[in-house]
Amino acid sequence: MTVLSFDEDGVDVEYNGTEFRLEKDLVEEATQKSYVDVTDHEVLKLVEESPQFSAEPRRIGDLL
User: CA angle, corner 47, sides to 5 and 22, nearest 5?
Assistant: First the structure.
């Protein structure tokens, strides 16, 4: 299971027991979108090959 924790500067990720951080600039570069317009689903796709989604996507701007 992957856990994502969003803040104004990036995303803390826990993936398969490993914790790391995706900085805001990296997320923006990878998605070609403004950080606040990226969805949690898009970030999950950056981390996992075949993510399983259980809810509707939410914009980071709405989560902050």
Answer: 50
